[in-house]
């Protein structure tokens, strides 16, 4: 028991240190620009729990982050540096919207699964392209996923502006999805999506799949030592492609649950860079599914908290963007002399 | 003279991409996949406008932009080489820091999150009209281009000479190709990588300054709009050779300029803007596919260990 606690402490020491250091640097910055640094920091960290409404927004923010982080974890564990979360998110959201709006006359029991499966498949397709290019031709997946992000963003912007645009409302948004397929609210918190329950369940399932099944062991072996994996007979290429299909599927599901539970329609540029922040959450959690749930909640807290901080004091909310960059830089740094080698 | 204005627009659009591509190429030769070019460009673009606005001097603005970009590159060098952070993760961190930091500065110092638009702004030096009219075709297209465009196209031979004709360039390449061998030969590999990043910062700084200072004279958040990544693609596409890299970058610039022309037609702007990114993916795939075909006989003779892993040109992540 004591040993398990020590192991856990060892595992979380580095990320906790990175978070603590970032929060300290942030506090120094805040103290330099406002007379009420304590008030600003209290709002940044705790205003999410001031009211039921704030708490609902907090859960809504955490849902896509958790799902994207889980997807990133599958790809990273298989050794694929998937930076395409943002594109996969948008692909899922637009596919879900197009299906939901164009087939809105179908009964909910038929339409709901269609929408969800369509969203997941669209995201998975976007993960499949870089995976196949990597496995077959060794095309660098960092570049392909980054480029696909921009292509998908432009394509969805075209659809939102010219094809599925709702002419009666302001801005590039689609028509509302039929209310019968909206996700029910989180029990006890009106205004919050119950998608967070799905995300939490999937975090546990992902952990089981990755660390308690032979399939997961093979996937991780392909990621850590490809040559060894193929030598002992693991079909590494298949595992890598499967991991990327899952990664894309998780991104697509994040987009689908966003339109079903939070936005209820597709909006151009609806994501404040969930893709990259989700990736950050996964890295911060040392690519561990349960940890990713925790870091996604932490991130949701400070992203929303930044807005409350801006309202109550004069600290701009983009401070959090700056701190995120700093956190990413600090996170992978290894300070011990042993690791420096 | 439609073709002259088109050629001028190709030159103008290519120059930041050429510079970004060279910035990525120099680090790639030191075995670093530099995804931070975009962030360095953004920092330079912002610094150029902020300093130009405050001082009224174009030269000082350009100088400060380059210094800021080099400082960012050295922050990346510090995190990765001293504190062994992963190059890609730290590079993405630099990009976030650049985007967040410039937005924070806009909100805090200028109280305008939308962008920084000085009422007056000092002009960069441009090639005066009429000085090159005796050169056929290229002369008129070059007239009116900023000094950075000229520097961009001088940077290509400069990089080539540096890499292949100077001892330091040879050390840098050696550090990238075989770190252990280079170390046993007495080369300070970490210093060579830091140097590669510094040169990368210089080139990316020029690219960023060109984007904000040449014609626009303002800064918008995200105004580099992925050109750093296009440059990275151009570098990977051409395997890190200076002249081929520049050629690929000009090709992407050509697509950009063509896109602007096509926008006048009925094609939705989003598809036009997609062109360089699609071209990058297709180009990379095609380059890999050719390599794949060329390597095929060897693969039949001795079974390859595993596809998708062994790739000599790819930096170790």
Question: How would you portray this structure in words?
Answer:
The complex is a heterodimer of chains A (341) and B (317). Chain A is an all-alpha fold and 341 residues long. Helices cover 74% and strands 2% of the residues of chain A. Chain A contains 14 helices and two strands; from the N terminus they run ααααααββαααααααα. Chain A has helices spanning 2-33, 37-46, 52-77, 85-102, 108-137, 141-163, 195-211, 214-224, 226-231, 236-263, 274-284, 289-312, 319-331, 337-340; strands at residues 185-186, 189-193. In chain A, strands 1-2 form a two-stranded antiparallel sheet. In chain A, a hairpin with a 2-residue loop joins strand 1 and strand 2 (189-193). In chain A, helix 4 (85-102) crosses helix 10. The longest helix of chain A has 32 residues, at 2-33. Chain A is globular and about 60 Å long. Mean pLDDT of chain A is 89; it is low at 336-341. By secondary structure, chain B is mostly helical. Chain B is 71% helix and 0% strand. Chain B is built from 13 helices and no strands. In chain B, helix 2 packs antiparallel against helix 3 (58-82), helix 2 (37-55) packs parallel to helix 4 (87-109) and helix 6 (147-165) packs across helix 7 (167-177). The model of chain B is unreliable at 299-317 (pLDDT under 50). Classes of the chains: A mainly alpha (341), B mainly alpha (317). At the A-B interface, helix 5, helix 6, helix 9, helix 10 and helix 11 of A face helix 4, helix 10 and helix 12 of B.
Q: What is the makeup of the main sheet of chain B?
A: none
* Major interchain interface with per-chain residue totals: A-B, 57 and 55 residues
Task: Return the average pLDDT of chain B rounded to an integer.
Answer: 86
How many β strands of chain B by DSSP? 0
Secondary-structure-derived class of chain B? mainly alpha
Q: Mean pLDDT across all residues of chain A, rounded?
A: 89
Q: State the share of residues found in helices of chain A, binned by percent.
A: over 70%
Estimate the strand proportion of chain A.
Answer: under 5%
* SSE arrangement of chain A, N to C: HHHHHHEEHHHHHHHH
Termini distance of chain B?
Answer: 49 Å
- Helix count, DSSP H or I runs of 4 or more residues of chain A: 14
